[in-house]
Design brief:
Number of strands: 0
Strand content: under 5%
Order of helices and strands: HHHH
Structural class: mainly alpha
Radius of gyration: 28 Å
Largest sheet: none
């Protein structure tokens, strides 16, 4: 490119001055539920499997943190260290 063309380039107006959002841009709960009908049925089983896996992971992590007595929760103070 020629240097003079570079100096004349300006950013796109959409990025320089974003337009304000429309007042009706917020979705209600019923509008969001209607959007679930657009999800392809092939994706429902993988969504179910992911939900079960995430639930099991949260459960096992929570159980481990609450029941494991050998888990170190605080740093040892320098006075209590054995050298």
């Amino acid at each position: 490119m020629y240097p003079t063309r570079m100096l004349r380039m300006q950013p796109t107006r959409a990025f320089a001055f974003p337009t304000p959002k429309e007042p009706q841009s917020a979705h209600t709960i019923s509008q969001r539920l209607r959007q679930l009908k657009r999800v392809p049925p092939e994706l429902l089983p993988i969504g179910f499997v992911l939900a079960v896996a995430l639930g099991a992971a949260v459960y096992s992590c929570t159980k481990k943190l609450l029941t494991d007595k050998t888990l170190r929760l605080h740093r040892n103070s320098p006075e209590s260290r054995d050298y």
